[in-house]
Write a structure and sequence with these properties.
Blueprint (H helix, E strand, L loop, with lengths): L1 H31 L6 H17 L4 H22 L8 H22 L14 E4 L2 E4 H23 L1 H11 L1 H6 L4 H27 L5 H16 L5 H16 L6 H18 L11
Antiparallel strand pairs: 1-2
Helix pairs in contact: 1-5, 1-6, 1-8, 1-9, 1-10, 2-3, 2-4, 2-8, 2-9, 3-8, 5-6, 9-10, 9-11
Length: about 280
């Protein structure tokens, strides 16, 4: 029973990271019609911020707190300077974000010397719960994810800003016709999505270490999660991220890792084929 519960916490921790990654990615894709191919590099920037704080002799937790804000600021600058010019041409926008991601990834590769760098867990050890030893940092990741999802739900469901965001998610053209400043909403949403990716990178780097290609795996699985969950809602990408996260973390315990990666894609693609509108879809684009 003990090993099974430990495995469950490992699955939940990785799934929590996937949910944080796809929340921002899904909202950006639903509202703006642009898949952000630099999203994995935003996660990488969050991880780099934590490592840089550690190298500067600062507490690791300070880097984790700073990471989402720093990456959100980078995302806002990129949206204002580059991305917003391509909303009318989504294909060009995707190519543009791919180029941005490539630049960011190679920049981090140069800054880190192309090496792997470990980051200490801010909270080490484990908690004893009913005779079960739970790794402390994995528990923190799960709690943070639940807090962020709950806060985002409250923001979207109970505030005026949330009403505007949901309106732009479900029908961007009607939102613009109603006089909403979609340019401002787009900028805020892009920065918010980047910040969530930065937070995910900050939380995951003590587990995976920092390396230049850290964000690529999460980027690919993030897109798969968004397509599986469905565009046009907040809940869809979250549900897709939960499913893909559980499959990605759980299957390697039963089959070889390479086969597990293939199975994740096969299962997700079959589900998308059977339900192309996604697990949860409210129309969207």
């Amino acid at each position: 029973m003990g090993p099974a519960l430990n495995l469950a916490f490992d699955l939940l921790a990785f799934t929590s990271i996937m949910v944080l990654v796809v929340m921002g990615l899904g909202v950006i894709a639903s509202m703006m019609g642009v898949f952000n191919f630099a999203h994995g590099e935003f996660l990488l920037l969050g991880a780099y911020t934590v490592w840089r704080a550690q190298e500067a002799g600062l507490p690791v937790w300070l880097g984790i707190v700073a990471a989402p804000f720093a990456v959100a600021l980078v995302g806002l600058v990129i949206e204002q300077a580059i991305v917003r010019r391509f909303y009318a041409a989504p294909i060009v926008g995707m190519l543009g974000t791919y180029a941005i991601g490539l630049v960011l990834r190679e920049l981090i590769r140069g800054l880190t010397g192309g090496q792997f760098h470990s980051v200490q867990e801010p909270i080490s050890g484990s908690f004893a719960i009913g005779g079960l030893s739970i790794p402390a940092w994995r528990l923190v990741i799960i709690v943070v994810m639940l807090a962020v999802v709950g806060s985002c739900w409250f923001l979207l469901a109970r505030t005026t800003l949330g009403l505007q965001v949901r309106a732009a998610l479900e029908n961007p053209a009607l939102a613009r016709a109603s006089g909403m400043s979609t340019r401002r909403l787009y900028a805020m949403t892009f920065a918010f999505g980047a910040g969530l990716a930065g937070l995910a990178g900050a939380l995951v780097v003590p587990l995976f270490s920092l390396f230049a290609d850290l964000g690529l795996r999460f980027l690919v699985q993030g897109f798969l999660s968004v397509m599986l969950g469905g565009l046009g809602s907040f809940e869809g990408p979250v549900a897709g991220g939960a499913v893909v996260g559980l499959l990605s973390a759980g299957l390697p315990w039963a089959v070889p890792p390479v086969l597990a990666d293939v199975l994740v894609f096969v299962i997700a693609l079959v589900a998308i084929k059977l339900r192309p509108q996604g697990i949860i879809n409210r129309g969207g684009r």
